Each structure stands twice: as structure tokens, then as C-alpha cells.
Amino acid sequence: MTAPLVSIITPTFNRPELLPILCKCVLDQSVSDFEWLVLDDSPSPSAFMRGLSDHRIIYEHIDEKRTIGAKRNHLVQSSRAGIIAQFDDDDFYGQDYLSTMLSAMRERHADVVKLFGFFLYSTRYKTFGYWDLTTKVGPHWLWSPAPPALVMLDEQNNGIFKETHLGFGFSYVFKKTVWDHGKFPDTDFNEDAAFVAAALRHFKLVGLHDHQCTCIHVLHDSNKSRCYPQYIMPNFLVRRLFPKAEDLLASSLAGAMPHV
Fold this sequence. Notes:
Layout: E1 6-12, H1 19-27, E2 34-40, H2 47-50, E3 57-61, H3 68-78, E4 83-86, E5 92-93, H4 97-107, E6 112-122, E7 127-132, E8 138-142, E9 149-153, E10 173-175, H5 176-181, H6 191-199, E11 205-209, E12 215-219, E13 231-233, H7 236-241, H8 245-252
Parallel strand pairs: 1-2, 1-4, 2-3, 6-11, 6-12
Antiparallel strand pairs: 4-10, 5-12, 6-7, 6-10, 7-13, 8-9
């Protein structure tokens, strides 16, 4: 069997209601030469995923709980393509997301491509924003499980942000040879930034700012992200900038996305 152009990988746990939404994002991609590998260590398998018949989709349920890093390693090891794209189970990927990332990898001769600037939606705050990870000084909003807070970053207090632009693996696209050189650490947090930091010793990383509106990183009560967007935007822009995301997010997150 001929290897696909790209292997999309998704580790998941206890989010069966999100998998149909992510499946639509995957199948809507303008790049169709892919395989999608999903590793699920939830207590019960996803009936939806098991019911899919698309030969490009490989769903595996395991009984043993594993760390996110271990699941990523398993998925990459099982992949057949020379390029890996990480699609997390709780984020939105527009139809041109994958083509944009692959084009940047090809045109800029990169081994790893990721987003250095991306759109955010907080289901807790019901708020839409944008974070440029390369801007490490000035006013930023702290989005976390706590109420939002405005923080002013400067050269004296922004030390923890030195390598923030390397993290947030929901947008990683990388050549499999990068992973061959160094695997993800067997941890549940920051496994992505550690992976890329090690890769930078030998491989070229290119960061993109999502000016084409291809992706939304979704913050909700069950994920661990703490984000610091500089920009807060009115929710009516969700419909204008992401015409397919409003209904998808609303249906998957039980109405957390306001109807605008």
C-alpha cells in the first residue's frame, strides 16, 4: 500500500463528544492524501469512531492509561507517512489548515512547522482572542481556570515566556525523521515543547502567524492550557473569520459558544 503524504495523529481520553467534530475537521481538509490515527485510552471505546468506514481512519482503543507523550510516540511509530501533523481532539482546524502548514514546510525547507500566533476561544469566558507568542512584553490577558486577569509583561517578569513559542503542540507538523532523532518525553504536560526544544539542535523550525484564520485553540475546563492573548475580539467575528467553526464548536461544547 502506498504511503500517504501526511499522517494526522490524535491522542484522546474521555472526550467522545468531541471526536465527531474533529472528524469533520479532518475530512474537510483540502489535502486528502492522509491517514488519521487516533489512540484512545478512555475507559470505553468510541462508538462513533468504531462506526467509521473511511479506510484512511485508523482508530485504536487500549485499556492501559498512558501519558500524552507516550500516546504521541505510539501514534508516530504506527504512522506510514514521512510527515506528521498533530490534531488535538479539542481544537478546530479549518479546511486550509493542513495545506497551509505543508506549503510552509516545503517552501521554507523546514523540518518542523508550528503556529507562533493563533486564535483562541475560551468556553469559560465565552471570549474570542488572538495570541502572538513572539511578543513577550506589553499587556497580555491571562486565561486560565481562574477569572481573567490583565498582566503587564516586561524584561524583568517575563522569564517564563522565553520558550513559550515552542510549545502548544496542537499545531505541530514535522518530518518523521525529527521524531526518529528524539521522541516525546513520557509525560502529560509540556511534552511538546521539550520535543521541539531538543529537535532545534539538529533541525529547522519555522513558525507561522495564523493570519489566514485556519485554526482555533479552544480552552475549556478539562484542558491544561494557560494562555496569554494580547487581543480580545468580539464574538461576532467568529462567524466572519471562521464560518464553519461556530456550529461545530457550539454542538461539541454543549452551547459554550454563544449564538451570535
